[in-house]
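Handoff note, outgoing to incoming analyst
You'll be picking up this chain. Sequence as last confirmed:
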Amino acid sequence: MFDNHYHYTVGNRKTLHKLDAIMWANEKNEPIRFDVPTWMKNVPTHIEPEENLEQLCIRSASRIREEYNYVKLWFSGGIDSTYMLDIFLNNNIHIDEIISVGSGVPNSDWEIDDVATPYLKNISKRIPKTKITVKKPGIDEYRDWYKKNYFFENHKDIGKVEGFYSMRLGRKLQSIHLYDAVKGTVNVVAMDKPCILYRNGEWYTFFLDTFQDNQVADDDNAYHLFYNDDPLIFTKQCHLLKRAIVDGIKDKAEYNKVCFSTAEKYQTLRNNSVRTIDGKPRKFILKTPIGAGDKGYQADGYKESQALKYMAENYPEFHKKWLDGVEDLNSIGDGKYFNKQNARFGDVGVFADFKSLDTNSSKTIDELYPNGFKI
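Most recent structure output, in case you need it:
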């Protein structure tokens, strides 16, 4: 089972869930290992595909359509999901359903309300046979979610792997198991661009678990990351990004800031290197850094921070439940598994092996950074 999925290894135990891995690691003070699927280990990332990115994406979208009975595309309004959606639309590849989910918190749903929903309304006449679903949790769902003292355990119960520390229930609604599925359904999700770095004169692509978003799926309800789960698309993106960095940044000391910094110039370079159709740059929404937001409501991003503030002011009982849960998480290993020793800022990332873009080889984090990882 685990060989075909991104997963965690702690000692002799394996799991898909980060929370399990944290608990196990804390029991015996063992390290957490993040492992990529066997098929990704075998991808020759040092060989750039000859086709351009758009051609590879069209081929992948067509293959998805052929292999599954029901294609459900998850759309956030961000640059990556918009590019994916346009690949299907512009090439007349039928989508059975497009689904967008929000948090139900007014001041943190602006991406869904102001970007995704208007875009879907604009294209709806082009796709009359496609079901368009926009979901948001109501206050009763928040009430039910926070009945449980250890609310973060709910994520495992519904098969959602990422974001177990979050206040917002938008991440809950991303769980594919919450929805009825036609036999042979594929959930197509647009995760972020690949991440690469330059070390000891060689380029590597790396896999950090907090940059991934995987779910427990089954034969009738598949989960497919449109860019990451197609080896050719993934490899092409790595090489496009590598060239963009080398051509666009003079100082080699700044190379590795592109995938780790939220500065606009680095986000622009990274996005424009792999998100163009017909050579035209695409608009994108800037990411916010960890710790963004009003004082007292800082979180792993601005939308989460806004949600915390809204809930504290309007539904303090839910906010308190969340704070209590965060404190419970922070008690695990004195917070060492979380950024800034605080679960409100998300979990500390775990690196899988680094695959070279220049040679047919891989390196562990300890081999590349024997004295500890530094950007």
